[in-house]
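Fig. S4 source data, part A: sequence.
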Amino acid sequence: MSSSSSIKDILGELQKDSYISLLSKLIGEAEFVQNNPPDLIPQEDKVGRHVLDVLYPFSTDNGGPLIIKNVEYAPGRGNLIIEYPGTVPGKVVSFVGSHMDVVPADRETWEFDPFSLSIDGDKLRGRGTTDCLGHVALLTELLKKIAETKLKLKSSVVVIFIVSEENNSIQGIGVEQLHKDGYFDNLKGGPLYWIDTSDSQPCIGTGGSLTWSMKTTGKLFHSGMPDKAINALELAMDALKPIQLRFYEDFPAAPKEAEYGFAIPSTMKPTQWNYPGGGINQIPGESTIAGDVRLTPFYDMDYLKTKIQEYVDYINAHVEDLESRGPVSKYTLPAEGLRGRIDMTFGVPLPGIACDLDSIGYKVLYNATEEVIGHVKPFSLTGTLPLVADLQKDGYDVQNVGYGLSDTYHADNEYCNFSDMANGYKVFASIISQLEEV
């Protein structure tokens, strides 16, 4: 067997020319993998084919060691599962979660073309460099090196590139479906590293996400006779405030949030507002405010939904007591037997995760980070990752890390640093090496 030090020597460093060549091809596809249904449906196979161009020559189909599976639940949107088999059955290390779709980018608001790779010193610029095509290229290069050198490893190395991460409104085609269909079953025999965070440090906690939509129903009427209307827009504003205030009373900062380094506590806020339309001289009878809750992992999602519904039920029972906006602004019309009403619906909850800091996966990541970066400063954030909480609940040793930059996530003028990605390569090599000794 290869020793720990010799494994790192064999894997060496990330080859800059090869990495940039591949990343340039991936960023060149970014325009076609923007994810914002129904207008933008990504075709992740455009990214996947460049990955396969690099790795397929080393596949078992060509006499090589890599076992490659393309798992497609929607045309043109295949998840890629690549395995380098080890010698000890059941022993595995996996790198999961790097996705082949991106958030949309508007050329008009960028200082450079978001859909072609440009280089400014250490900066690699373009949509997806940080989130997450830079990681797709990084792990592809790692697999290529392992396959080229034919390393003798006890642990199998498994990489899963996923689709439909940036917007999962189209259900049943991404990582959750892979999990349901058993493609993760062989990954319990070692740490599972979710590679889609940032800043080159362990991300030890993430927030859960629950989207909500609050519809308000009043009575449409002429703006010149507001006493005969129930203004759905005003009802939305006046109902949402006490709901938010009660949320912050019931979900204050939990004691463990400080231990895990969460920069902010749980939050509930609106992000969208719609109404059916009409003349400016009409008081609308309906409106909808939508938003989300970001919940730290020390609170339960089912409890959250129960509490929010309690707030809604109370307001509906006491709508006449809501603070209103002027002498004729009101939310009941007793003579007509009408009451304003709010109805809350929820999206699919995505729980957050607090990583196990006593697990072998975390200890190995900690050691590798200290060795390569020179210091370890774990952090947590209320951004949300798919599936990780379910995996942890099912007994997987889930850890999160990434080598892009949080300041450029989902932002205009996105970039990553080559030096950070090169460090990430060394961290992955160190993780693989350390696990050979476990």
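Fig. S4 source data, part B ends here. The chain has two domains: 4-206+352-436, 210-259+268-346.
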